[in-house]
Amino acid sequence: MSAPVAQTTGTAAVAEAAAEHHQGHHPALQHHFENLEQQADAATLAMWLFLVTEILLFGGLFVGFAIYQTWYPELWHAAHKKLDPVLGTVNTVVLLVSSFTVAYAIRMAQLGKQRATSWLLGATIALAGVFLVVKYFEYSHKIHEGLLPGAAFSHAELAAQFSNAHVFFSFYFLMTGLHGLHVLAGMIVLGGLLWKNARGAYSPEYFTPLEMGGLYWHLVDIIWIFLFPLFYLIK
Amino acid sequence: MTTEAPAPATAELRGEPAPSYLQEPRGLWSWLTTLDHKRIGILYLISVTAALFVGGLFAMLIRLELISPELSFFSSTLAYNQAFTLHGAIMVFMFVIPGIPAALGNFVLPLMLGAQDVALPRLNLASWYFWLAGSALMIGAILAGGIDTGWTFYIPYSSTYSREGDAVLLALGGVFILGFSSIFTGLNFVVTMHKLRCRGMGWFRMPLFLWAIYATALLQIVATPVLGITLALAMVERAFGVGIFRPELGGDPVLFQHFFWFYSHPAVYIMILPAMGVISELIAVHSHKKIFGYRAIAFSSLAIALISFLVWGHHMFTSGQSQVAGAVFSFLTFLVAIPTAIKAVNWVATLYKGQIALRTPMLYALGFLFVFIVGGLTGIFLATVSINLHLHDTYFVVAHFHYVMVGGTVMAFLGGLHHWWPKMFGRMYNERAAKLGWLLVVGGFIWTFLPQFIMGSRGMPRRYATYNMEGLEVHQPLHLMSSLGAWVIGAGMVWTLCYLVYSIFKGRRAEVNPWRAVSLEWDVPSPPATHNFPIDPHVDFGPYDFERIDEATGLIRPGPESQRLLAAAAVKTLPPGAEEENSG
Hints:
The structure holds 2 protein chains of 2 kinds.
Chain A: H1 9-19, H2 36-71, H3 73-80, H4 85-110, H5 114-145, H6 156-161, H7 166-198, H8 208-232
Helix pairs in contact in A: 2-7, 2-8, 4-5, 4-8, 5-7, 7-8
Chain B: H1 10-13, H2 28-32, H3 37-65, H4 77-113, H5 121-143, H6 157-161, H7 165-195, H8 208-240, H9 253-286, H10 294-308, H11 323-351, H12 360-383, H13 385-391, H14 395-425, E1 427-428, H15 431-457, H16 476-506, E2 508-509, H17 560-573, H18 578-583
Antiparallel strand pairs in B: 1-2
């Protein structure tokens, strides 16, 4: 029990008595929890609440997107043709597979297969890297063609047709950009988990951080599942 | 054993007084890296108090200017605009929102639940550092020239017209980060209340303060991210001009208002719900009577939280919103009055035939009742579209939300602070000094804001630096009155700070349970030890079962299960050898 126990003998003894049922506890157990199950429950609830905040963060952008699509339907249709559906599909597949690898990594941790867990986490990070590389090529192409937000917009064809063609690309860069930042954050989180897993931090008794990292990564995946049809597959 | 009588309370279990959380561990560094919810509560208390005084200073400057219809105190109207913007932004984001939950809530929530800490102590500390970082950016905004957009950062003020672009970006970034701080606190509290209630602590045995904090925390989690993205978009709009909010680029400034109020109306309840929770505690404890309508008060908090998401449009009756939307938002806004009135009626019913002790916390609670009801009822005026069109952007609105925010939240904050002060610092403040402070604050408050209702209803617009035109000069006497009252509040605040700080060093030592309350924070020493409870508590009584108080000792009598646990622990606390003597 790592509780900051008071130094006077009396209190120390009481705290010791109270700590009796903690004895033989897991090193990952924090002092204010009774057991690992309660700790894992708390972490899981906290993670789901955090995911709620993430969805609401993106929610503002999704609502804005829906409103402007209703106002400028022709622009939205014309502008979406400048996006490459093949690259978008590739990235969708890449993220779906990465969701599978991270889920499988957790399963391997539950079974105590530490090496397999590490390999699968590594694969997830690599797939996230592939996603970002594809995104890099998409972005460079847009920048090259001048399909940019605000004053930087310089695509002659769209500019001739629509007075505010840049707004579509404002949403495109803001939404995929914010999502890209989440992919980057996910890579860092998964990297940390990989590092700790390699040092043997997780076991069939204790793998809560892996589960939390996995939940976060699924969210990153799911947001893309919504972004992809909204931007690339407008009818 | 000669000590047959079971130890009466966990507080007395300690033979030697354990060092309190204030004493151990020592040193500034131990405070800056603490994971103890009590210390984080104190850190927050110091920080939000500083914000209160800075925000209050700006209010004083505003009131100085408004004594005269001409520009007199400030060098320009820009400086005046900056003063009211900073007053609003600092008070709302740095004081009122974190004030009660993060300072008082952090300190008492785990104690009330019988928990050793909040569920996520590191996130709790991170929340405070995010508060500091956000506040540093706000101060940076002041140094970078100040912002004059109003605390609402409306487009196009913030995107186009504000003269200090860098300052606007800094302030938006600061509020964005303060939002994280708020989310972390709320998230932590929800998880703690779900997962760390002690044995026997059912949801309906939680003190009503915690129900209010729970409703608040849900709002913090659900509403704040929307503010985050809105401010982020406003920053991008200011920096790059992306055409989402700026009309000349194809955007819609009213969309900003929708997004902003989708957060900021629930945020009004983030500000007032914890205050209502504090009042429930103060009224029950200081009238020594079981709260009337426990479940009604508990569920009305959740009802307010729910309705608060459906009323944001009432800030935009004059923004070109459709008449249908206006009527719907008006009707939904009326609904808020129902759960609010349920609370008020239950509080009054609790007072009825209670043993009312007119101590400072109770005085603040009574002040709250009188003032807040005026604030709430004038809200009904403003929710009525036809009246709103007349009163919109007048001092009537200013007076209304100050009656709610200052008369409600600040009074509950002060009442709660006086209520939990003996527990926090183990010292009693001087009761007479505190009563004088109360008189100055409450008296000064009414003196300041009642005239604003009158001049607002007569057409004095808000946010004007000068009023020497269109016959507005007639309001000068009322403005003068309001300005004088502001100085009385200021004096009351400084006085309160002085005697409270003095009490830490010279105050009489506080008992374990000075108010004879029954919630668990009054079952541990004043101030508590670093480790909240020597043995994990077991409750078999409600938070307002005052018959559980032992009249002789003033402590809570433990139930059978607690007695067994305490007795078992007490045996082990006897010094070695004691047991042998007793066994003979």
